[in-house]
Amino acid sequence: MFTTRFRSAAALAVLLGLSLTACDSGEPDVDGAGEEELITQVAITLTNADDASDSVTITASDPDGDGAGLTFSPSSITLRPGATYNGTIDLRDTINNESITEEIEEEAEEHLFRYAFAPASGGTITLTDSESDYGSADENGGDFAVGLTFRAAVASGASGSGTMSAVLYHFDDAPKTSSTATSDEIDVDIAFPVSFAAPMTAR
Q1: Is residue 26 part of a domain?
Q2: Chain centre distance of CA 158
Q3: What does UniProt give as the signal peptide span (predicted)?
C-alpha cells in the first residue's frame, strides 16, 4: 500500500509528475502524523454548462495504492473549444471501499484543490465551492475555497492535446489562510490527459 507521509509524497510527486497518495485524517499535531487514508481512485466529471447531456468522466486509478502504474479510463477526454464545463472530483479508497470525498467535505478547512490546463492557453479553471458549503466551522479565519466543484472554461482557440492537472493540498501542519494557498503536504497530483476538439467525446 502507498502510505507515504505527506512530505515524502510531495517529493515523490515532483519526481513522477503525477501520483496518488495517502490523506491524513488525523487532527493537526506537532509532527503532522495522524491516521492515513489511502487514495487509489480519482474521477473528474465535466458537464457542459449549456448542455447537460454533454458530459464526460475520466478516472485515474492506482489499484494497489503503491504509487506506480497509474492508469486512466478512458485514456483521454476531448473538450470542446469555447465551451464551459461544470466540474466535480471524486476520490475513493477502493481497497477499503471508503469515500475520501466525504472525508474532504468533513475536513474542508484542511483541503484545497488547484486545477490548471497545460498548455495554459487551453483555458481557465476556477473553484466554485467554499468551506461553508460543507458546514465547516470557521476555525481558520475565513470561508476559503475547497475545490470539490469547479468551472472549466475552454479557450475558443484551444486545439491539440494537453493535460488538466488536479493537485490536492492538505493543511495539517499549518492552517489554510486563503483560497490560493499552497502547502508542501500534497495528497494528489495528477495530470489528466485531454484534447481540444468538437464534438466532445470520450475515446
Answers
A1: no
A2: 22
A3: 1-22
